[in-house]
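Form P-L/3: holo structure prediction, ligand FE2/S2 (inorganic) cluster.
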Amino acid sequence: MQNRTFYNEILTEHNLHPEHKNKMIRPTAVMRGVNPSCGDDISLELEVKDGVIADGAFKGDGCAISQASADMMLELVIGRPVDEALRLKDTFMKMIREGVSEEELEMLEEASSLQDISHMPSRVKCAVLGWRTLEEILTASPENGEDSGKSVTTENDGTGIPGKRK
Amino acid sequence: MQNRTFYNEILTEHNLHPEHKNKMIRPTAVMRGVNPSCGDDISLELEVKDGVIADGAFKGDGCAISQASADMMLELVIGRPVDEALRLKDTFMKMIREGVSEEELEMLEEASSLQDISHMPSRVKCAVLGWRTLEEILTASPENGEDSGKSVTTENDGTGIPGKRK
Amino acid sequence: MRLNMTEQDVKEIRKDFPFFSGSDAVYLDNSATTQRPKRVMDALLDFYYHKNANPFRGLYPLSWEATEAYEEARRITAEFIGAASSREVIFTRNASESLNLLGFSLGSLLLHEGDEVIVSVAEHHSNMLPWRAAAERQGAALRYLLPDEEGHFSVEELKKLITEKTRIVAMTAMSNVFGELYDTAAFAAAAHEAGAVFVADGAQSVPHTKTDVKKMDCDFLAFSGHKLLSPMGIGVLYGKEEWLEKLPVFMTGGEMIEYVTMDEVSYAELPHRFEAGTVNAGDAVALGEAIRYIRELGQDAMEGRERDLTRIAMEGMKRIPHIRIIGSPDPDDHHGILTFRVEGVHPHDTAEIMAGDGICIRAGHHCAQPLHEYLKINSTNRASLMFYNTEEEIERFLSSLGTVRRRLGYAE
Amino acid sequence: MRLNMTEQDVKEIRKDFPFFSGSDAVYLDNSATTQRPKRVMDALLDFYYHKNANPFRGLYPLSWEATEAYEEARRITAEFIGAASSREVIFTRNASESLNLLGFSLGSLLLHEGDEVIVSVAEHHSNMLPWRAAAERQGAALRYLLPDEEGHFSVEELKKLITEKTRIVAMTAMSNVFGELYDTAAFAAAAHEAGAVFVADGAQSVPHTKTDVKKMDCDFLAFSGHKLLSPMGIGVLYGKEEWLEKLPVFMTGGEMIEYVTMDEVSYAELPHRFEAGTVNAGDAVALGEAIRYIRELGQDAMEGRERDLTRIAMEGMKRIPHIRIIGSPDPDDHHGILTFRVEGVHPHDTAEIMAGDGICIRAGHHCAQPLHEYLKINSTNRASLMFYNTEEEIERFLSSLGTVRRRLGYAE
Ligand SMILES: Cc1ncc(COP(=O)(O)O)c(C=O)c1O
Ligand SMILES: Cc1ncc(COP(=O)(O)O)c(C=O)c1O
Ligand code: FES
Ligand code: FES
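OUTPUT (holo model):
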């Protein structure tokens, strides 16, 4: 376990001083992501205009990893077209599941700092919570201002977590 | 375990050729003794007259030990007063539980051949089945010709059997 | 993986089992419980000495290792019985707990007033009493499937017994009295045709023949580790995922929840929702190791060896006068289980006399008392073999058996 | 029997535990499960290698030895908790199974429409969900006994909660979150006064303090072997004989019957009628050995040692800024259990960071989610000590804990 290095400056900075947490935006879509085993949840808000993520924010409680990951994710996808954001999501998931090339890693910008999470199987669910919620929001109702009432969990999505809630 | 010697001639003789099994008598009292775990049971019949066991017989199924023991018991108690039979019962039980003196052993006549049963804890219940039924019949309704409807079991009378049905 | 197993091989194999070096008893009560190879117990110790923590509960590496070891045991068990995924494998204490879980949960799911449950009359009490209790709780009726005199069950008979009220058919895949292996797939098909669920008791079949739950097409299968070279604290309930998803939970408590508030509770994913409280990771890991050992020996070789020993034993028994063997006259129907009576001798005396010769066999009803009632026999003796028994041991068994009547005073 | 236990003694004692020689982790999750002395596992091996047979089932000497070993474990367990006889000791898989047995059997015996069950809000899920399920099945209602902010429960509050409809009061003898030991006798007396049955959860209390069920006057007591230096497959349900005699059976099957016909069944004597299927004799024997070991060490010495360590740990924690300890401010109320939060840091991050330093502590709700809901805390960390922890380990724990906030980016 490389915790000493894992809780690095990028992560702690995004956790303690998140850019996009509790920010006021005019969301066109809202979705909740929940990890019942730890009781943590986030609520992700996006403003999608003409196929582009114009703005985004999140609320909620969670560990440093989930909070920082959501913040880095928003930093990365705001201003990008929906399909590009979804591709970045794929790359992020791939980074955690099987690893990616240097090139792909660079595309993830600061979010790439989470690559070692794969060695911490119990925390994968934290790192992917924001991303899975993003995926759901974008594929369920990309242009929709209504809260679909659905929510997402990353505790049984087979992201390679051994044990209980695979 | 001294089985080779345990199934000795006295025992096998009383088992294969019981003197008192299925004998026709005019019983004044009848009682059933059952060992549910092996499914075996005997029915003990006594003809008690003026405080003396004038005659006795048994029916039923069971292992060689239970059958021989019941037969030896009847051989011993027929013709004796009720209180003497009960004292012999006490001596028999004591022989199995803790051991008895040479003198006491002799009083039991052939029934003393069962003394080593104490080394075969699972078979104690067999050896005492007849005796416990005798005790019950003599203390419950010594002079009574009616079947009391009760029955006896030796599987949970704490005769020193370890385990299950003590 | 061995393709066959000779007497010489077995003498080597027995060195894997510390029990045999410490005892010269002839252990022929393998259907009750088996002995255990050293490597199985070593795996247990390795878990307790190097990976021990409460699985699932901690974030620290040790707890993850414990979780991994436990889940790895589940995966290997799933593979061993041909389950579609390890979500279909629930660890229990023993086959009895597996079947009670079903009695309670499947019973309450499927049984209503007037419904029917079919069990065979040859069931072990553990696959009979839970259904009787379930039927009683739910106001359903129990029907008995009866075998012929040789212990064969017929699918036709089952079909005759099935009505539109039949909800559950529970039947052993291999009888612990007859030793016969039944064609579970055929009985399951008859049940399914009528819309009933088929529960197979694999306590005897899993240790003695290759198991493929897909081929058997049973909806549930129960078995015990301790009859499969493993410790006494672990059993398995296999269930088809679609059924497990519908099944109400049984025991509740730690580990089997997703979240609990003062008013609400939501249960964990399969298979965890059926495993309340701290899991028996140590024994599960040992079961995993036993399965690895069995696969290395080769299940076909084991089964072949048991067939050979059964033939030798049964032929020997047929040569001894006054022996009555229960079930089929064909040794290949017995899978190492030889239930018998010595005429004129009470089975407890037979077992006692043979115990004096160091032969460990059983006397009684082998937890199948209704079968004995049906066969109109008070009790029987049973010798049950395992691949690790030797021809020498069979000889000792036969020669002791041959003297029983004489030692009880019969001329012959 | 030791009268006290110094740091030096403990260094010797740790040599009894193979786990410690193989790991330099600081294991502080003892409330979840403990480590095991070699002699406990040796007793297990001795059983499997030299006495292994299915207890109760055979007439041959081996089976009697197995039975004797199992029953001897029961006797020593009965003695250890002050039971009147070993008929009052039922072996189960773990505390959870013991409590589920009660939920089903005592629930169906005592609870009717409109009746009430009281549990404390601090109960482990295993002593809460079985009662919620029982209440739901029987149409009864569940009431929560609430503690004050420091984790103390009051008998007065219980009396206020009890009505003439209260049938069962189920309460832990020691909280796995607060670490506080409750005066079971006083709570039981309040229950008894109202004619209710008192069920004590001893999962945490039995390993950490001398148990005398007569003094506690509880009607039932549940605990687990794996929290008591034993393997994971054995638990205990103690019950007063008069109650056990009335209690309907729970699981059915082999071993727990007297006789079975096709239509009738009669159950075995106490305690066997509550032990369906092959018993876990191996783990029971190991539990017996663990109890012997504990008695040799001396329970007072163990308890004293745990009190000393708790004081050191708690004083150290109080010196670290931004640490909030849950429950009583008095170390003597904690019995080795220190549940806490690092302000501003999510407990999973605290546990993860400390795991990186080799410190094994817990994060989450410790299977007491309703208590966390009541305390309005999402989750917490928990360090739980055992007599075998060292002062050095407490130092390592404290120094790691002192760095958590800094490593998460806080200035201090
Ligand atoms: C056919 C069969 N079913 C069920 C059982 C019950 O297994 P266990 O006692 O391990 O629960 C046994 C063995 O005792 C058995 O032979
Ligand atoms: C207070 C309390 N009760 C019950 C349990 C349940 O014990 P087990 O998981 O061994 O069944 C535990 C431990 O997990 C506990 O701490
Ligand atoms: S621990 Fe809950 S999201 Fe990380
Ligand atoms: S075995 Fe039944 S009386 Fe002896």
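COMMENT: The radius of gyration of chain A is 15 Å.
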